[in-house]
């Protein structure tokens, strides 16, 4: 009888264990069904945010262009919204000037840094230099702006006596410093992805270190390098605080880097923090300029994606 009771007890334990496993399996199956929807929701947040931003810009820009001609807006050479002049060319010119100066600073320094870290630096040096380089990406842009205003501009004034306190040269130079980590990090990743077999083959043919870098590694990593440069340019186009603080607020259609200029982002800051009446033409001009800036950055990102796909090397 004792054996029968023990056997019956074991059967009950086994049945309870089976029921618990079924419950766990059922719970796990429900979780497996829920997780894909949760991940889809997370992925949709960025898409919906972009759509919302685009909708807002389009809606408010339509209100602006109902009062100001689209042709006059993009072809006019005088920007003074408080006087009724809405030619955005000076803002576009100032943005492009800052971007050009920043590109001339960031591309050589960033690319040379990437070459050093990828091809010449040993592990010990790389562990020291790369974190320091990436710290530049974490510095607030307002700090960069006052650095340009209080240090870079006085330094440049010792070489260029006529340089004003607010100028495109200092702003563009510091924007270039800010985007160096983007160029260096992405370019280094592109060069590290080049197989060592290509390097070893070049060395086997008698190539020097420098020849391997410029004739093997850089051509093989060209798509990633160009994409990093295009993304960095896009970042420079959208920079706000540095140019607002260091470059001035003078809508001036000029390509003289020693003069004060105003970029699209700087105008948005100026108008958004000023006495702008809601619903006025000046208020709607914020969105028209923002829409123009959105198109600029969108085009740059599309170019970067196209270059990455077009010139990608697969090994």
Automatic annotation (TrEMBL):
Localization of this protein: Cell membrane; Membrane
Membrane topology: Multi-pass membrane protein
Domain ABC transmembrane type-1: 92-304
GO cellular component: plasma membrane
Transmembrane stretches, start-end: 34-58, 88-111, 132-152, 164-184, 212-233, 282-304
Main subcellular localisation: membrane
Superkingdom to which the source organism belongs: Bacteria
Entry's Gene Ontology BP terms: phosphate ion transport
Coiled coil: none
Keyword annotations from UniProtKB, A to Z: Cell membrane, Membrane, Phosphate transport, Transmembrane, Transmembrane helix, Transport
Alphabetical list of CDD domains matching this protein: TM_PBP2
GO MF entry, a single one: phosphate transmembrane transporter activity
Gene3D superfamilies cross-referenced by the UniProt entry: MetI-like
Protein role: Part of the binding-protein-dependent transport system for phosphate; probably responsible for the translocation of the substrate across the membrane.
PANTHER family: PHOSPHATE TRANSPORT SYSTEM PERMEASE (PTHR42727:SF1), PHOSPHATE TRANSPORT SYSTEM PERMEASE PROTEIN (PTHR42727)
Family: Belongs to the binding-protein-dependent transport system permease family. CysTW subfamily.
Protein name: Phosphate transport system permease protein
